[in-house]
Specification:
- By secondary structure, the protein is mainly α.
- It has one domain.
- It has helices at residues 3-17, 20-41, 55-76, 79-86, 88-94, 99-120, 125-128, 134-160, 165-185, 194-202, 204-216, 227-252.
- The longest helix is centred in the middle third of the chain and has 27 residues, at 134-160.
- The mean pLDDT is 81.
Length: 254
C-alpha cells in the first residue's frame, strides 16, 4: 500500500471509530434480524434436499454475515460524497496522487470496516452452525474480505456519481434489499419460482453467501454452486467494480 492510499485508509478508520453509533448499527440490526427471524421460523424451516441441524438459525447465519458486509461496505463509501462537500476530495484530486491510490485507499477502508464488523459477529457461529476452528475462521475472513472489496467497489461506483447523501441512500436502499434477498440469504433457490431462480443465479452476491455457507455450515445445501465457482465469481465481481471505480476517477479527474 502506498503512503497516499494508506493515508486515505487511515482516515476512513479514524472517522468510523469516532462514530460509535455506526458500529452498533452495522452489527446490532443484522444480529437482531437474525435472532428474531431465526427463532421465529425455528425448526419449521427444513429444506428437503438437506435438513439443517439448527433450522433457520443455521441457514440464515451466512446471509446475516453477508448483510453486515453489504451495508457496512456500501454505506462506508458515503464518505466520498461527504469529502466532496467538504472540499477534501477536490484537494486529493488536485494533488500529485495516483488515481489508483485514491480508489485503493477508499476501497480498502470500506472493506476493512466491513470485514472487521462481520468478523466480530463470528462469536455467534457456535450457536448457529458449528464450533469454530482456526482454519474455519481464516477461511471465513478470507471470503468476507474478498466480498467486502467487491461490494465496496459497487458502493464507490454509485457514490462517485452522486452529490446528495439522501439520493445515495435512496438509490442504494432500493437496490441493496433486492440484491440481498435474491442472494439465497433468506430462502434457497430450489423452492423459488423459475424467474426468481434465474435472478438468483445472475446475482454475484449469491455466490458470496454460498461461499460463506460452504465454509461455515456442516450441512451444506444440495444444489448450491461449488466453492471454486463461488470464489471465482466473487473475485471477478471485485475486479470489475475496482476497474470501473478507477475508470470513473480518471475520467472525472481530467
Amino acid at each position: 500500500m502506498t503512503p497516499a492510499a494508506y493515508t486515505l485508509w487511515q482516515r476512513e478508520m479514524v472517522r468510523f471509530f469516532r462514530q460509535p453509533s455506526r458500529v452498533i448499527g452495522a452489527i446490532g440490526s443484522p444480529a437482531l434480524f437474525w435472532l428474531l427471524l431465526g427463532s421465529g421460523f425455528g425448526q419449521s424451516f427444513r429444506p428437503a434436499a438437506s435438513p439443517l441441524i439448527n433450522g433457520y438459525l443455521e441457514y440464515f447465519y451466512p446471509g446475516t454475515l453477508a448483510l453486515i458486509v453489504l451495508f457496512t461496505a456500501i454505506f462506508s463509501t458515503v464518505s466520498i460524497i461527504e469529502d466532496r462537500h467538504e472540499g477534501f476530495l477536490q484537494g486529493v484530486l488536485a494533488a500529485p496522487v495516483s488515481r489508483i491510490d485514491i480508489v485503493t485507499g477508499k476501497l480498502l477502508g470500506a472493506a476493512s470496516l466491513a470485514t472487521m464488523q462481520a468478523t466480530i459477529f463470528l462469536v455467534a457461529a457456535p450457536f448457529a452452525v458449528r464450533p469454530l476452528t482456526p482454519e474455519v475462521v481464516v477461511q471465513t475472513i478470507g471470503v468476507l474480505a474478498v466480498l467486502s472489496i467487491a461490494l465496496g467497489g459497487l458502493g464507490f461506483i454509485v457514490a462517485w456519481q452522486f452529490d446528495s447523501i439522501q439520493g445515495f441512500h435512496a438509490i442504494m436502499n432500493l437496490g441493496l434489499v433486492p440484491l440481498w434477498i435474491l442472494s439465497g440469504a433468506a430462502f434457497p433457490a430450489t423452492g423459488a419460482a423459475p424467474w426468481v431462480r434465474v435472478l438468483m443465479r445472475a446475482n454475484p452476491l449469491t455466490y458470496g453467501v454460498a461461499a460463506l455457507r460452504h465454509v461455515l455450515s456442516p450441512t451444506p445445501l444440495a444444489g448450491e454452486p461449488s466453492m471454486s465457482l463461488c470464489l471465482l465469481v466473487v473475485a471477478l465481481f471485485g475486479i470489475i467494480t475496482l476497474c470501473l471505480s478507477i475508470v470513473l476517477v480518471r475520467r472525472d479527474a481530467r
